[in-house]
């Protein structure tokens, strides 16, 4: 009997060690060594070359923030585990449905979650704004649970909010189960969807401020951003790291140069060094090979359209939005502008009404499109207009005689 018990104990110890060995580590874990500037010194924008880059990431993408144009992709539409890059959506849902000063009471579930943590205490009250910093800077899983329960009422209800927002953004190949991203069978996204979600999130100024912060404090203790690119890549200004055993090392980066902002996503990298170097290669490729071409300014007059039976013979037309597209030089030579605008319009015309569209097309693919709107209100020539014309003509003739 004692021998059997001893065998069972040994088996349990072995299983426990195996479980610990395979346990998902938090984003802050630096188990594969520090990243040095030497890793990012190889190549520059000027020598990045026109050839599509090769990266060790399992899946990746580069996207222009303004136009949404994809500049590079590798398995970009394949469903993958995304680890703590999940927290990009957690943050934006919280920012849109809560305010910094709200009190958040920490539950047992939040306080006891494993992985990357900031040490929240069960029953203690924290401000939502402080928890958002802990979420995105220190990648606190406990902060993620606390935020989800406060904003959504429960983790499950908050996940539904995340999924509704993903659908609204257009991230249709994404499903969220948790607010922290620890491995779960039905929790997934793609590089493309993550880029779309990030593109949306970067419109929020408060989000941008948090994810660009290198270091801060939480409850009097210093916290450093888990995003190595903020310190290693010139112009890097976000966004979020991730790491689980299933997802590997993940990183969503935004970087800005000369007013041009792009997003890179790398998933399933073997080490932090690999994800940093893969991100650098992709950013260098985009900045080194593409240039922003500005075609239209919102509100800027494009042309005029004739008006039939209007008090004016023509009305100005303008773009409904800015059109700026990142292009390689040879692409800029090939891009075509297609106008879908009528030659004449029937009065009356209201200022701001949609007149048509302008499309910018490269090799048969629409890269950018905008509605074209009228710049003024043009009234129609009615009975009173013609009567007035006849009366004035008659009066002039009488006066002449």
From TrEMBL:
GO molecular function: serine-type D-Ala-D-Ala carboxypeptidase activity
Keyword 4Fe-4S: no
InterPro entries xrefs: Beta-lactam/transpept-like, Peniciliin-bd_prot_C_sf, Peptidase_S11, Peptidase_S11_C, Peptidase_S11_C_sf, Peptidase_S11_N
Residues at the active site: 84 (acyl-ester intermediate), 87 (proton acceptor), 139
Enzyme Commission number, as recorded: 3.4.16.4
Function of the protein: Removes C-terminal D-alanyl residues from sugar-peptide cell wall precursors.
Name the record gives this protein: serine-type D-Ala-D-Ala carboxypeptidase
Organism of provenance: Ruminiclostridium cellulolyticum (strain ATCC 35319 / DSM 5812 / JCM 6584 / H10)
Organism taxonomic ancestry: Bacteria, Bacillati, Bacillota, Clostridia, Eubacteriales
